[in-house]
Amino acid sequence: DGGITQSPKYLFRKEGQNVTLSCEQNLNHDAMYWYRQDPGQGLRLIYYSQIVNDFQKGDIAEGYSVSREKKESFPLTVTSAQKNPTAFYLCASSIVRGSSNQPQHFGDGTRLSIL
Amino acid sequence: GQNIDQPTEMTATEGAIVQINCTYQTSGFNGLFWYQQHAGEAPTFLSYNVLDGLEEKGRFSSFLSRSKGYSYLLLKELQMKDSASYLCAVNDYKLSFGAGTTVTVRA
Fold first, then answer.
1. Which pLDDT score is estimated for B1?
2. For residue A32, which of A86, A115, A90, A88 has the smallest C-alpha distance?
3. What's the sign of the alpha-carbon dihedral A103, B28, A91, B78?
4. Are B34 and B86 spatial neighbours (Cβ–Cβ below 8 Å)?
């Protein structure tokens, strides 16, 4: 079945350490997204990408980096510059970014915690 | 900027009806989505509205009034499995999400 796979499900980071969250999709979607979800808050957009080798900052990009070398893959790196990284991270994809009637499909998420 | 408001929590009885309201003020509008999210899981798509009016999909219906910046999600014949968070998301040039409404269904 087609879908979005995020790994790992749980991740722990030490102070000053960079960590990378994986997101792979086999839906042949052009657009991919990373969101952060904190308790009592909605999903906030970190980065998005419409096409391979291109990506744009979302609302809270500081302390994060991404790459889009392949259509299927959109890894997110949480850098040491992100001072409050503990959150639930969700990856999503859609046929075309901004396509009005196409919903985003979400992965199962990665829960990141600080040691 | 984007401003999307939903009630934080709602409680209802099994078999009843619950209406979750969403009001929005956004710089653009290209449709409104409703998602369901169970605790610790991914959001799943429920409905989409771009024109004014009611969209019905089984036990779930969603309504939109663009002139009022208002939408609601109606859940009928509530079941225990409907206990979840419901997210309203407005499609501008990107999706902007409300904080979500946690619905608790009691027996």
1. 59
2. A90
3. negative
4. yes
Please write the tens of the pLDDT for every residue from A50-97.
899 999 999 999 999 999 999 999 999 999 888 899 999 999 998 875
User: How close does chain A come to B27, measured CA to CA in Å?
Assistant: 14
In 3D space, the residue among B51, B54, B57 whose CA is nearest the CA of residue B36 turns out to be B57
Of A20, A90, A27, A30, which is closest to residue A58 (Cα–Cα)?
Answer: A90
Contact assessment for residue A87 and residue A38, using Cβ atoms and an 8 Å cutoff: yes
**β-pair partners for B71:** B22, B64
Distance from CA of A93 to the nearest CA of B (A): 12
Query: Whole-angstrom Cα distance, residue A113 to residue B100?
Result: 22
Pairing of strands A19-25, A10-13: unpaired
Of A104, A108, A109, the CB nearest to B95: A104
Q: Would you say how long chain A is, in residues?
A: 115
pLDDT of residue A103: 81
Three-state secondary structure string covering B16-41 = CCEEEEEEEECCCCCCEEEEEECCCC
Whether B45 and A43 lie within 8 Å, measured CB to CB: no
First to last CA, chain B: 41
**Distances in Å between the alpha carbon of A52 and those of A30, A56, B12, B35, B66?**
8, 12, 46, 27, 34
Amino acid code (one letter) for A22: S
